[in-house]
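Notes to self, alpha-L-rhamnosidase:
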Amino acid sequence: MIRDLTIEYRKNPIGIDEKPRFSWKLESEKQDVVQTSYQIQVVSGGQLMWDSGRVESDQSVLVPYKGAALKEMTVYQVQVSVWDNCGELGQVTGNFETGLMREENWNAKWITHTLPAEETACPVFVRSFSLDRPVKRARLYATACGVYEAFINGRKTGDLFLAPGWTSYHHRLQYQTYDITELLEKDNEITVTVGNGWYKGELGFDARPNLYGDRTALLAMVRIEYEDGETICIGTDTDWHVETGEILFSEIYHGEIQDYTKERRQVGKAVLFEHTDDIGQIVAQESEPVRVTKRFDVKERIVTPKGELVFDFGQNMAGLVEIRLPKLMGDRLVIRYAETLDKDGNFYTENLRTARCTDTFVYEEKQVGMLVMPHFTFHGFRYICVEGAGTETEASDFTACAMHTDMQPTGTFTSDNTLVNQLQSNIQWGQRGNFLDVPTDCPQRDERLGWTGDAQVFCGTASYNFHTALFFRKWLRDMAAETNPEWGVPHVVPNILGNQAGAAAWSDAATIIPWTIYKVYGDKEMLAEQFPMMKNWVDYIHARVSKNGLWQSGFQYGDWLALDIESGSTDRTGGTDKYLVANAYYAYSTRIVRDAADALGYAEEAKAYGDLYEKIVEAIHVEYVTRSGRMVSETQTACVLMLYFDLIKPEFRNRILETLELNIGAHHNHLTTGFVGTPYLCHCLSENGLHGLADEIFMKEDFPGWLYAVKKGATTIWERWNSILPNGDFDESGMNSLNHYAYGSIGSWLYEKVAGIRCMEPGYKKIRIQPTLTKGMTEVSATYESIYGTIVSAWSCREGKICVDVQIPANTTAVIQLPEKEAEFTVGSGRYHYEYKTDTNLKFEKYSLESTLGELVAEELGRSMFEEMVPGMLEDPLIKFALSMTISDLLMQDAQAKPMYLAVIDALNAANSKL
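result:
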C-alpha cells in the first residue's frame, strides 16, 4: 500500500546536512483511494527523536522533520504509517545519516603539494594507518579543489566520478560521504588522487587554465567508530605525503595519459593549502553524483578508407571507454573519440575544435589484459579510433561507459512510429549526455558550459524524462550565488565567462526553471529559496527599461540559430526583433514572479509584480502591435511568443494566429524557429486549434525538422537543424555539436499534447489527461512517475475504434477529456479503460501535392519513376530551380503533368506505409 519512502528526494541517504523532508507513495488496486492520516517516527540509537503523532492530512509529499535537533554524523531510522479512506494501514521504513553539518566538525586541514607548475602528473595524497579493534562503522568525508578519487587498500571508495562536482567554487564547494566500513583491514593505506578538473584545468572558449586557482588541494577525513564506542579521526594534515602515479596528464577537454611502466614515486610531504579564503561554503553533496549508468559493447568493427581501426558503439553519449589492454604494435595505445564518421566513412573530429579528446596508455607486455579507464575526463562520442594496438585486437576489449548525473528515469513515451520512438530516445540521450553535474551545452568540444538558455527551454521536457529536483536545485543555488544587481544573471553557470550583462531567454532561467520545478514537485521550500533571485532578475530588467517601459538596450541572443535570417547573413540571432523577444520574456518572467509570490503567500509582492506585468503587456502592445492587430515582427517566433505567453489582446489573437499559419504555409509547413521559438511552436499551435498543423510540422522528415536528423542516423539531438547536410557534408560554422539537447524540448509536447499528461496542480496533485489524436501515430503510450506515483495515458485509434487507458496514482485526482469528446469529467485514483467508435483515420500520407519536387526525388523510388516516365528530366540544368517548388506550384505551370506527379506520390505513400 505504501512504497518509495524518500528522504529529501533520496532513498536512505548518507551525509545530508539539511533538515530532511519525507515523501512516500500510496498504492492500491482500488479506485478513489486517498490518504486520511499519517504518522512519522524517527529514532536514533534507540531514542525517539520525533513522533508526529497521527496527523489527519492527505499530505504525502515533502513532510518536514519537526523533532529534536539533529546531530552530526548520526544514523536515524524512520518509520511512516499511513491510513487511507478504505480503512487500510500501510507502513514503510527507511533511514538517513547526517553529514558533518558544520565546517568546524572537519577534523582535518586543507593540504596541497609542492610539485612544480610545469608538472602535469596528478598528485596522489597518501596516508597509512592501523586499527586494533573491530570497527562498527567507518566513513570518509572528502572534497577537493579539483576532482578526486579515493582508494583504500587499492579499492575505490564508492562509484562516483568527477567528485566533488562543479560549483561556483568561490561561493560553494560540495563534499561527499562514503561508507568505507567493508574496505578496512588491520593495516590500511588511503590514497586520494586529485586531477585538475574544472577547478584548475583548461576551460572555456580559449581553454584557459587556473580559472579558480593554480594548485589542486584536498580536504579529507576518515572517521572510524569502534564497536566499543570509541571514535577516532584521521584527517588531512602535513603527516600525509605526496606521490605521483600512473596518471601523467589529465584534462577534461583533452583526455588523459596513463603510464603503467612507472612506479609510484614519493615527491615530498603535503603542505598546508594557503588559499582557503578563496573557497566558499563547504556543503554536503546536493544532487545525485555522476556515475556510469549504462555500458555498451561494440556494435561494429570498422576499418575506414584511410585505414583507421574504428569501433562503433551505436549510441552517441558522454562518458569513457573501459579497456582490456590489448597487445601493442608500438610503445603505447592511443584512443581518440568522435561523434560521427564523415560521408566517406572516415573518422571525423573537426567539430571538436581544439579539444583533443584523446586517451593514451603506456604499458608493458605483462600488463596486457588489465582493465583500465580514464579517471578525470569525459568525452562525447559514439566512435573510437584505436591506434597502436595489434592486429588481433578484439572488439570485446572495449566497453563504452555512459556517464551523467545519476537521476532516476521518470518518463516513457512510445508509439507505433519507429521514427518518433527514435526521436524520443535521442531526446533522452541528449539529456543523459549533457546533464553531467551541470546542464552542459555539449559534451564533446572545447566548451561544455552550463548555458542558462539551453537549460530553461528544456527543463520541462527534462523533468518528464528524469527526476530533476536535486539536479536543478544544486545548479540554481550556484546561479543565485552568481547573480548580482550590476550584471544580472550569468549566461553560463558556473560563470567562467566573466561579467556579461544579463540577456533575455538565457538569464530568464532564473525564473522559468524554479517555477517549472515547483509545478513538477510542488516544493514550496525550494521555490521560496529561489524567490529572491527570481525577483532580482525582473528588478534588473526593470532598472534598465526605456521611458516607454520596455527593455530596448544591450546585447541579446534573439531567437538564436533561427532559420529566418536574410540569405547569406551570418547573424545567428534570427529574424525576430531581438527586443521583442527580450520584452516578451520580461513580461513572462514578471508574470512568473507574480504567480510565485501568490503561491508563497507574499500578497504585497504578488500585487506589485502583477501591476508591473499589466504595464509591460500594455507597453508591448503600444510598441509592437498596430491598431489593427498586425505585429512589427511577424516571424514564426514572434507570433508564437505573443500567443503562448498570452501577450495579445483577445480581439487580436485570431489575426496573429492567422499570420503564424500563413508564415508556416509560406515555408511549406516547415518551421523556421531557433532556440527561443522552437520549444513553444507545437504547443502554441495545439493549444489554438491547429494541432493538425503542429503534427505536420513535427512529422516532416526533411530539413528543417526533428525527424530529419533521425533519418540521417542521429542518436542524440543536434545543435543545428542541418548539422549534417543532405549530401553528407557537415555544417562549417564552428558550432556543430551532434549532442546538444535544446531542440529536444519538443519532448514536452509529446507527453502533454500527444499523450495528454498535464499538471493541473503543483506536484501533479491534480492531473489532466487529454490525449490528442496525431496523424502518423495510431498507438501511443506514455508513463510518468510523479512524486505521487505512476501516471499512465495510452491510446490507440485504428479500424474504426478509439481505445484509451488511464492510470491515476492514489491520493490524487484527474480531469479526463477523451479524444473527439467535448465533455470532461473528474476521477479519483485507479485504472480506467474507454473505447468507442470513430471515423478518424490516422494513416499519415507523407507525400502530397504540397510536397516539393526535391522531397519526391530524394527517395530512390521517386527518382527512378521520374527517370522512367520522363528520361533526362532530372539531368536538366533548370531542375535545380524546381526542386524547392511544391507540386501544386509546378502544376500551375504544367497541369498536364498531374497524372505523373500523382503516380509518384501514390507510390511513395504506399511504400512508406509498409515501413
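- The chain has six domains: 2-98, 106-284, 290-404, 411-754, 757-837, 853-913.
- Residues 290-404 form a domain with the Jelly Rolls fold (CATH 2.60.120.260).
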